[in-house]
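Fold it.
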Amino acid sequence: MVVDHFFAIGTPHANSGGACQDYAHSGLATADLAVGAVADGCSGASANTEVGAQAAVFAFERALLPHRQRPGGWFDAPFAEDFLAAFGASRVSPSEDDYLASLVGFAATSREAAIYLYGDGAIALRYADGRYLLIEIEWPGNAPYYPGYSTRPEVRERFLAQLSDPYAAVVQRRTEFVTDDGGVTTLASSSETRSFEDLERGTLIRFQPAEEQIEALAVITDGLARIGCLSAAEATAELLAFKNHRGHFVKRRCLRALATLRRGGQLLGDDLAIAGVWFGSE
């Protein structure tokens, strides 16, 4: 297994002299356990949410430490409590709004992979037979429930009041596709409504890489859907088109893909962060 990550500032933030409010980090927690996470600071908060994005990623890594020796059971209810506690303890800024950030993280061996998602974001898989699977979590009004809300009861109540139906709060969209002649052909697509209660403490999605013949897994912020005029599926295919799987394979691929897209006028409309693990053979 090889694990790597990448993040980049979007054109609007770069042009305004702002900071990149997405963050990513990854590494091998043990010889056979890959860990990675991305976080997306809320751009609409008019705050320094790059602080919250970094805090969320490192709180995820800290919370995972006591759970590392539990293959497949990394992200149970005790983990969620540990993550929220670590996130709450990481306050270096006096402003609560600086901590409005969503998180998508994974822990994976060649046999078991689990993704923990709190807020919004995307999960992408690349299979040995050439198929891709993209899973996206979308909240109404592009306003996710952030981990920072968990310690602010009054904010939680206001958030619930905004939802027309708390039992149908979120859309989880799945798209299976293949690439051909530089394009994307959709094989299947579906969407599932998830309740606020289901996702209030984060949600868990599992895979079995070896059994399902998964070559690569990546977690990505919602900047995936704002790369020029590309669809999220097209952007996924570009970012996961790994040729060399050694070392900084995610950074190399993303830098090359984004440079090629820029030359074609396809710019990053939002900050972007991705962390991925390669399971396939060299």
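The longest helix spans residues 49-64.
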